[in-house]
Design brief:
With about 200 residues, this protein is mainly alpha-helical. The chain is about 75% helix and about 5% strand. The protein has one domain (about 35-195): Skp domain (Protein Binding, DinI Protein, Chain A), CATH 3.30.910.
Length: about 200
Amino acid sequence: MKAIKILMVSLPALAAICLIQMQPALAQKSATAASLKIGYFNLNLVKISCPETAGSETLRLQAENQLKREVEQANKRLQKAQEEKRTPEELKKLTTDIQAEINAKQQALAQLVQTATAQATEKIFQSVNQVAQEKGLDLIIDGAGVYAGGQKVIDNGVDVTADIMRKISPASQLATPAAKKEATQAVAPSQTKAK
């Protein structure tokens, strides 16, 4: 019975010692969170200023148009084969061959568009990291992607949209104060839901 009493007395003492030792770590953690430097940017405006993004979008539209032309040509080939009174077996084989051709072209074009989009995304990512280093920011977020606490980010963070756009495209027109204000306002509507 004595062993139990010692254990019962020791547990509260042990808990108190643990709490005392943990408090400096908790204080340090809250101090670190308070000194976090945050930046935000408008991803849509950055994408617009990125030539690679425009190129990947153009490529996507061209790929869609090419596939439409391919499908139209395939339908004409099938219609011609039907008019020539081909056998059902021949029509079935022609249909299967055409589908295989179109699927292969669709996959190749999709891969091409995906590669171009990945290159644009990589350029944006590199530009964001460069701006973060230059401005001494610990964290940069896309302002449109914040669903809670967004107003605090805008109030206490640094708008780096223009800086990122200049990194991506040095000829960017966002260097004027009016354009910078417009960029900030473009991020702000999404933040109203984030208050």
